[in-house]
Each structure stands twice: as C-alpha cells, then as structure tokens.
Amino acid sequence: MIMAMATSEIVTMQDGSSIVVLDEALLRLEGITKLFAGRSALSDVRFSVTGNEYISLLGPSGSGKTTLLRAIAGFETPDSGRIFFEGADVTRKPAHRRGIGFVFQNFALFPHLSVFDNVAFGLRNRAEPFPEDVVLSRVKETIDLVGLKGLERRGVHQISGGQKQRVALARTLVTKPKLVLLDEPLGALDANLRQRMRTELRRIREALDIPFLHVTGSETEALSMGDRLIVLDAGRIGQYGKPDEVYASPATANVARFLNRYNVFAGTIENDGFTTKYGRFDYGTRTPASERAYAIRYDRLSVTPSGGAAPAKLAASYVASEYLGSAMVHFFETADGKVVEVEHHLSFGPPEAFEPGRSYDLSWNPQDGIAFG
Amino acid sequence: MTLVTSTSAEVDVGAPASNERGSLSAYVLLAPAVIWMTLFLVVPMAMIIYVSFWTQTTFKIEPRLTLDSWQTFFSSDAYLSSLWTTLRIWLIVLVTTFVVGYPTAIYVGLFVRNKTLQTSLLVLCVIPFWTSFLIRVLAWRPMLGKEGAINIILMKAGIITQPIEALLFTDLSVVIGMTQIYVVFMVGPIAFMLGRIDPNILEAARDLGADFWRILRKIIFPLSLPGVVVGAIFVSVMVLGEFATSAALSGRKVNLLGNIIVTQVGSLKWALASVVGVILTAIMALVIAGLLRVVDLKKEL
Predict the structure, then answer these.
(1) B204: which chain A residues are within 8 Å (Cβ-Cβ)?
(2) Which residue, of A52, A308, B189, B260, has the greatest Cβ tally within 10 A?
(3) Tell me, what's the ipTM?
(4) Which fold has domain B77-300?
(5) Chain A residues with CB-CB distance to B296 below 8 A
C-alpha cells in the first residue's frame, strides 16, 4: 500500500535560513479541507500525482470527490490547505491560469456552437487569442485525435452522447493542458458506449502523454481504467495505490465496501481471531484501521450443505441469484437480515441450484480473510 | 405463425379507420381556435381595411369606396410626422428598455442562483402593475415637473441653479414613462432564458480562458437572444399602439399614431381612424416578422 504524503523537505542552510525543496510531483495537495454548510466535504486531503498516469478517483456519492476535483481545477477555493501544481502554489490562482483541463460530467458543451467552434472556443477566446490558422490546425489535430473527423460542422444537438463526450474532451485537450480532470465522464453514457470510451480515454491519454485524473462512483470503472487508484472515503483519502493492490488488500473496511467485492462484518479483534456475531474467524492478514471489521471477498466463499466442518463458516439462508454472464452471484441472508454475497465463476463449473429459504453453510479459507483494527 | 398473420391483418384493417377518426377529432379540436381567431381577428381586420376605403363626410360615413382617407393621411404633414414620431419613440424605447432591462435580467437570471430570491425579484418588477396604468403614468408628472421631485433634489444638492424644464412635456418624458412601464416585459423573457443556462457552461468557458465580457458576448448573449426577441416583440407591440403615456406626459406635443386614432374616433371620423389603424397594424406585422427572422423561436423555446 502506498500512502499519499507530502514529499517536500525543509532543508536548513548553513546560514540558518531554511528553504523548501520541492519534489518532482506535478500536482500535490496538502491538507485540503472544505466545509459546505458546516458539514465537511473534504478533510485534510493530501496526495500527489507524479508520473504520466491514468489515475482513477473512486468514491461513493457524497464522498467529496467532485468537490476535490473542482478544488484542483480552481472552481472552489479550499477553506484550508494548499494545492501545488508544477511546483508552484496555485491554491488561489484562477482556474483558467492553472493549465489544468476540466471535463464536465454533463459535458457542458456550448449549445449554440458547432462541434468545430466548441473545440476552437478556448483558442479563440483566451486573453491572447491564437491566429486563425493556428486555431484551424490545432482544432483539426485534436478532432482527429478524439475521432470526430467529419462532424466539425454539426451542431452539438445533432450528435450522439459518445460524440458529445469526445467534443467535451477535445475542447479541453486543444488548449494543451498539463493535467486533465474528468468528472464522471462516462456517467451519462449507456453501458455499451461506456465500455468503448474507457479504451478510447486510455488511448487518448497515452497519445498525449499527460496525466488524467478521472473521478467515478463505479468501482469497475475505477479498477479497470486507473494505473493508480485513489479511494475517497467521507472527504478523506481512504487508500492510494495500484488497482490490484487496492483490490487485494483494502486499507480500511470502507474501502473494502466501496470495492463492492467484499462481505464486511463488524466485530472485535484479538491476537488470534476475529469475533463477529456469526462466529469467531481466523484471518490471514491484519490491517491496522480505526474501524474494526472482518472482510472476505465474494469469490472466496463456497456454499456447502448445513452442518459441515469448515474452519471458517457462517450459516445463512438462500435468497436469490443473479446471472452475470461469466459468473453467478448468489445472495444469502443471515438470521439477523445481513445479506452475504457469494460469487461463483462459471469457468469453475455450472452453478449449483439452491433452495430458497433453506439454510446453507458459507465457508472460506481463513487465510483469505482480512481483519481491520 | 397463423396467429402472427391474423394479428397483422387486423392491424392493417384497423389502421385506416383509426386514421379517419384521428383526423376528424383533429378538426373538432382545432375548431374553437379557428372560430375564435376568425371572429375576433380576421373579421375585425377585414372590417378595418374595408372601412378605411369608405366615404367620410362631415356628419356621416357611407360604404362608397374611395381613396380619399388614404390621400388625406399621406398628404398631411401632421399625420406623416406623427408616423415618424411613432417610429422614433418606438426605436428609442426599444433601445432604452433593452439597455435598462438586460443588465437587470443578467442580475436576476444569472447572478441570483437562489430560486426563491429570483422569483421575489421578478415579482418586485411586476408590483407597479398593481396600480392603474394611468396612475403610473401620471405619477411621473410630480417627479419630472418644473417644481417636481427631480428638479428640487438637483437644486437642493446644488448641481443646478435653474430647474430643468426639458424633463416634462417633451419626447424625453414620454420615453422615460414608457421605459419604466414596459421594461419589465423585456426583463421577464430575458431572465427566463438566462435562468435556463447551465452554470457549468459558464464555468467551462471561464476555464478555457474567456473573460467575463467574452463570455457575455460569445455565450450569454447568443443564448439569451430568444428572450431578447420575445421581449422586443412585447415592447414593440405595446409601444407602437401607445397613446396614453404620450397624452399624459407630453402635454399633447408628442402625437403618436395611437393618439390620432383616439382623436379621429372621438370626432367620429371612422374612415381616417381605420387608415391609421391599418398602417399601425402593418408596421407591427413587419416589426414582428423582422424580429422573428432573428431567431427560430420554435426551435429555441
């Protein structure tokens, strides 16, 4: 697990004065805090973006992810904390002078302009507009890059959702930003298109070689797109790392919940086991965290008839199943109403048929269990 | 398979019948509007045009067709100058209502994002309409008069030593009066259009480096244009047909086409009144047609 930390150092010079040596980070956030109507939307957010990577920022609704993105873009001023971009403090710098591009959730295209004029807007209307021949060549280049060739003269009402998404992206990219922020860019698209745009976004990012910071509420999107994944939990950074690391070893119970792949049980921890109201389970990993919980992945559970002798198991009655194509998700319910999910990959054989309402044992290898606390 | 064929056959038979029923009910639904428009718009318009060609003698009017009344209008300097005055006052009021109304609408529709406050501000604009039209017009007299409020304040403040007499009973007083009365019809539609602009669009424009004036020119104004056109139509129709404001605030020095109609009808000169009515209606039709060419309202609203 990689924790996000401010990496600047204060070096004391020989004459006693001290200077701040800035790190290589392109973007660095130091203790960003923002209150909305007395409720904290962001509290002490700190992380830095170094390489040219695709970074996903995952958070459930209300976790402050849009607020964080807007603060980085310059649409919101944090109540405290500082934002460094390219080594300079930009906390109070207006949005358009930061060199950070922003792609809005609902695209926010200019409804009265054509595709070409939408993309050209930033070049023509900045403080020192570019000459028209530069505008022409740069817009053409960007339109080709995002795959909108042939649609230049169309009005933005005459194109599809996916094409609007590309216009929104092109409009930002044409200004040559050094970092692109995307606020739930795929949220307004249908599932099929979303899948295609994921690959497209990654291809475009690689062609430009600048970091993209992509905010999303979808864990599959965050995991599949990001070279790196930031999980935001109630206005704080829950975890920052490579998607597979976050997936395999979530840092907190909430991160495990947001990944939507873990059954999480509350309880108390001792040295050799974790006690929940469903029984006492051994664990393979112990992660220090403030919230005590026991997490086990959906696909690590297996269903056996009641009364078996597995080292870690709990009793639950079968409710229903959901077919996902490559896998089957079975929903079980414990006696006190907690839903436990079991995922069965169909490559391991056809799914078993369970009888609704009947009690089964859900068992797992204790080595797969993660204990928080 | 048989089932499918029989169902589709049924649909085929059913379709023309329901179509006929549909078109019949469409006519029935259309009828009230058509009857209303015919009775209260087409017939009266035709009557006015017809009467404008009648023969007018001192005491009566006869349905003998003649061009006399039209010749009287176009050969009289007084009538022609009132035509130019009407057009001049209309254009000036159109400009002043826009100049005063647009910034007001920008404030209400764009800067006030709180819906309740927005509605309250618009209601505030409408409150003057709770009093009678004449009272609103006449209230300008004690404001603008030689010993009126504005002159007293300016003199007390030492800005002027002599009262400004040009304030009342001039073109200026008519323009001031009309602007105050009609500006709200400009503010309303513009504020409505501005209120529909997605704030993200303005943020996006800002992020792309455009300053406020560029955003105003390139984004806000084009998007509010349908509101400007609707407001301009409201103001135009009302100002072109005006007679009360000019009668009350110009001391009968400013004669609009509307004033001529009032005088002619008063002295039972129906034919000449009809001529002026036809001319006024034609001007309004031209103005509205011209304004509608600026934007495609059906598409924009």
Answers:
(1) 102, 104, 108, 110, 171
(2) B260
(3) 0.78
(4) MetI-like fold (1.10.3720)
(5) none
